[in-house]
Specification:
alpha+beta, Ribosomal Protein S5, domain 2, 5-stranded mixed beta sheet, 34% helix, elongated
């Protein structure tokens, strides 16, 4: 099997995912998954599509992560892995879609507006 690649995004994070047949190793930015994401919750988020399909030990995954915070990065990686798995086997798509792993979360940070302290917050109004 050749290397399958896919892209996952969430907030400001971008994950380029490369999936090949192997023994279940996940490497993120040349570091092990457990080293890159010490939190077990974030490790679980990354592995969700693999666990759903029961193929956690079947593929080696290499991920280049860029931008964002650790939560956004883990969810970007999850989307990228799900998209790569669908490229490998299109019959898996309904199972992953029902869990919400195929949906790109569109929520982004709203830009700051001029004349205001933040995006929507206003300076205190003074009548006099």
């Amino acid at each position: 099997m050749e290397v399958i690649n896919a892209l996952g995004r969430r907030k400001a994070a971008v994950a380029r995912v490369y999936v090949s047949e192997g023994s279940g190793k996940i490497i993120i930015n040349k570091r092990d998954l457990e080293v890159y994401f010490p939190s077990s919750i974030l490790q679980y988020i990354v592995k969700q599509p693999l666990n759903k399909l029961g193929v956690a030990e079947k593929y080696d995954i290499k991920i280049n992560l860029d931008g964002g915070g650790f939560k956004g990065q883990s969810e970007a990686a999850r989307l990228g892995i799900a998209r790569a798995l669908v490229k490998i086997n299109p019959e898996d798509k309904p199972a992953l879609r029902s869990e919400g792993f195929m949906t790109r979360d569109p929520r982004e940070v709203e830009r700051k507006k001029p004349g205001r302290p933040k995006a929507r917050k206003r300076f205190q109004f003074s009548k006099r």
